Amino acid sequence: MNELYGAGVALITPFYSDGSIDFEGLERVIEHQIKGGMDYLVSLGTTGEVATLTEAERKAVWKFTTNKVAGRIPLVAGIGGNNTLEVIHQLKVFDPEGYCAVLSVSPYYNKPTQEGIYQHYKAVAAVSPLPLILYNVPGRTGSNVSPETTVRLAKEIGNIVATKEASGSFEQFSKIMRDKPDNFLLISGDDPATLPMMALGAAGIISVVGNAFPAEVALLAKLCRESNYLEARKIHSRLIRITELCFTEGNPAGVKAILHQLGICGSAVRLPLVEASSQLEKFVQEELELVTLA
């Protein structure tokens, strides 16, 4: 899966103020990523507010994204959930044309055991038309995919090829790197952890802040892959505050506020999320002048 090395971005889904999908805004976001040098895009991950979209809307976004990218860079589709049978259904009706892999979040809310997580992914992988990327984000799901479960899945199920790790645990990252098969990829799921995780041997990042700053995130990942950590640290430091602002009032409200100020798309989100406060907008405006490398 060479397509998954370097910097990927979890694309937002732009909305108009009435809640409908802003496809013109999505096109601008996509072009912003490609112009900025992103290595691949993830369509309808958590940042894409996929939980608030209907099945018809999901299909429309995936098809639109495929058509606009037109093979210029690889695409990954986000298909996951806490109802295993529903995830299986989504995979069966998904059109994989134009996509190289599926990113599937660990079941949330149910808080399954490690065996439950293993059996969920085993069932999902059995019907997936594309290689599968695990996604461990305990802060959102309420449960952790242990390193042992990750490695078990990697070793026993051939089309599970990577994990997006957002546990925040360097002990966990280290155990996965130590025990995983050589061809199984560890991918950072947290922007601030990109540099140290890539220093451990991670393949790259699936970024949120990259929606707004693709050139910076792509260069950071490139420098890390080249083991040029001195230069990578400079970008890492510049992005710390703006990344913090992305998550201060929830994701993707923060990064949408940034994209709005950059003139790329609006800041609307779907309930139960709400738009960034005026105070956060002010902080974003102050910080934007300090971030770019130019």
TrEMBL record:
Transmembrane domains' residue ranges: none
UniProt site positions, description: Part of a proton relay during catalysis: 46, 109
Pathway where it operates: Amino-acid biosynthesis; L-lysine biosynthesis via DAP pathway; (S)-tetrahydrodipicolinate from L-aspartate: step 3/4
Keywords, in A-Z order: Amino-acid biosynthesis, Cytoplasm, Diaminopimelate biosynthesis, Lyase, Lysine biosynthesis, Schiff base
Coiled-coil spans in chain: none
GO annotation (BP), single: lysine biosynthetic process via diaminopimelate
Enzyme Commission no: 4.3.3.7
Primary location group: cytoplasm
GO MF annotation, one: 4-hydroxy-tetrahydrodipicolinate synthase activity
UniProt cross-references to SMART domains, sorted A to Z: DHDPS
EC class: lyase
Keyword Lyase: yes
Catalytic activity: L-aspartate 4-semialdehyde + pyruvate = (2S,4S)-4-hydroxy-2,3,4,5-tetrahydrodipicolinate + H2O + H(+)
HAMAP family in alphabetical order: DapA (MF_00418)
Record note on quaternary structure: Homotetramer; dimer of dimers.
Name of protein: 4-hydroxy-tetrahydrodipicolinate synthase
Organism: Parapedobacter pyrenivorans
Gene giving rise to this polypeptide: dapA
